[in-house]
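Write out the 3D structure for:
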Amino acid sequence: MAAATTGAAAAPPDDEAISRLMATTGADMEQARFLLEAANGNFDAAAHMYFEHMPTSSQQQHTPPRPRAPREPTPSGGAAPPPGARNVAAAYPRGRGPGGLLGRALQLPIFVLRTAFGVVTSVAHMGLTIAAFAGDTVLPRSVMRRARAIATAVAEVGGSPLDPAQQAAQFVAAFNAAYGERVPAFLEQGWSQATSAAHAQFKFLFVYLHSPDHEDTETFCRSVLCSPEVLSYVGEQFVAWGGDIRRADAFTLSSRLHVTTYPAVALLAYPGSRTKVVACLQGRFTAAQLLAALRRAVEEHGVLLTAERLQQEEREMSRTLLEEQNREYEEALAADREKAQRRQQERERAEAEAREREERERAERAVQEAAENRLAKAAEALTQRRAAAAASLAPEPPAGARAAVVRVRLPDGSNHSRRFEAAAPVDLVYRWVDGLDGCTFWQYSLVCNFPRRVYGPDARALSLEEAGLAPQGVLFVQVEDDEDLGAAAAAAAAAAGAAGGSGAA
């Protein structure tokens, strides 16, 4: 049932909540209704209030728990309380709360809290403080202890609830302060988190439910729970957790374990993520009895931990094998990708080299074709010049005083001679050389060795006599072309000759 909004009247508890509180605590219907109304509908706080100010009788506390009988339906539709709980309810007649007159006196401020909880919280605290001061003077200490428990429970309802870890930390701090340094190493976590820790370590969870107001608690904690034998065995074998049943987390666990008397110790296992109680001791027992029960539980149920450990190892082995297979698969994929990448790179490199080779060959062919075209054009020009020069020459003049014989040596080693008129220009000798078959060059100069003289462009207009070539002269050809056009000229001449022979045929 949700708590009422601060400052508004609390809704009356429903039958389901009343039946649940009756079944859990053993209270009768009127007591359950009263506690739920006082706790503003908070079930845990109502149960906490009940166990604080309605303890069981000494006979019930020390009686071993009996097998739980099936609960019979009640007129309100809930389940009948267990046998032990009926004894508690019978100890307090219907309509009479614990503490006699004090219980009736405390009903008025609780009723006020129920109707206007948020508005009068401070007034209630002041009233309870005054009542506690007066009660310490005139009432027995046991009655005042129960009254303070009721006040504490009411105060907790209005305050911010502690989470399980905070509850556990407070219990550990209080327990260590009360019983010294040699105490069990209780986890400062909620019991559900403690179960996870025990399950992860493949250990049983050792649970101690602490009831501070029980008359046997002090003796049990000092002589049994904190004895060296118990501390050593529990520390080596188990994960330990303890809780104060006045707190919600420990009270919830005590309800699940069906604890009816204190001190209470339990040993829990968690096979397959299910809670299994392998040992539970309630009431008075010695350190030897506790150790015997714990060892017997370990011997009888240790196979649960072994099976769980084997299953975990099998899962770990399967996970490791799967990871190795996945890693090998990924490595194989990476190797295949690397090989494919290398093949692709090699293919791309080969294609690039082939393209470069083709481009280079194409460029070389283009250069060669251009050179061949240039040489072919030069050879054709030479052929045409040779023909034109031969056609332009007049016949040789007869030998005589006015004639000049000119001998020319070509670069190919051939010698040629011709008569010219002494008054003929040197340019006529150039035209004669242009018409010779051995003239396979384009640019050249006629040179005389003795004395050394080059008949360049400025000397071409001189007459042979003026140039010192009459009555005879000996010249050689000095080629000035950048390239040897002889092969091209020969090829062009051969091509021309072949063309002429085909035409004659």
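Residues 15-158 form one domain.
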